[in-house]
Amino acid sequence: MVLIIAFCTFVSTLVGGLFALRFRDQLHLVLGFSAGAVMGVAFFDLLPESISLGSKFFGGSTVTSFVALGFILYLFLDRAIALSFPHDTEVAEGHAHAAHHRGILGAGSLSAHSFLDGVAIGLAFQVSAAIGWVVAFAVLAHDFSDGINTVNLVLKNKGEKNAAFRWLMVDAIAPVLGAGSTLLFTLPEKSLSIVLALFSGFFIYIGASDLIPESHHGHPKFLTTAMTALGMLVLFLIIRFASL
């Protein structure tokens, strides 16, 4: 049952990514939506779950410290990539190269998150079937956005459609591998709480420092702002509904 649901996450992610590829001309609107969706996952899903799992071991301030650590780690990784290229006559080429690596970094992080989605499904079913179905529904709902986000991060950062599709396949396969891996191990709640907090910081950085500025560049700001708000609202409603 776990692997069947994991395969459904593969389909959901793939459909979301293909949607982003098909409507590339409206990418600024999709980017705006993706920014809200990425931060919605962080604020409404990963962070609350991290606090809930970690409450037995440490206070809320410790969890938020790991969120900040995740934000700073991603910031340094992003800046390290950008600063590793020259700023002279090759600046345009260097920036394009740096953007390409940022796209890989972002897509890789989203894929790692998708792997944890699969792990969450597997571990939830180990607790009980009821909890497993709730977690599975939430993962299926936002994996569509994960597919969009993965494609957008590659395309926005000078990536080609073929590269975006390859990363989409990695992101789609990741939850299947994650769910399958839980047949071999059990991750302690304390460790899972820290991992989820770190990824919250990653996604807050991606949304606020990368996707939002790019979605506003050279496009009507009201519509893109509305799409960002819509992205957060959609994820909020999906996660709230799934937790009923």
| Oligomeric state of the chains in view | single chain
Give the overall shape, derived from the CA principal axes.
globular
Radius of gyration: 18 Å
Q: What value does the average pLDDT take?
A: 76
Helix proportion range: over 70%
- Structurally, the number of domains stands at 1
The string of secondary-structure elements, in order, is: HHHHHHHH
- Uncertain spans: 84-94
Structure report:
It is a single chain. About 5% of the residues have low confidence. With 244 residues, this protein is an all-alpha fold. The protein starts with a helix and ends with a helix. The longest helix is centred in the middle third of the chain and has 37 residues. The protein has one domain. The protein contains eight helices and no strands.
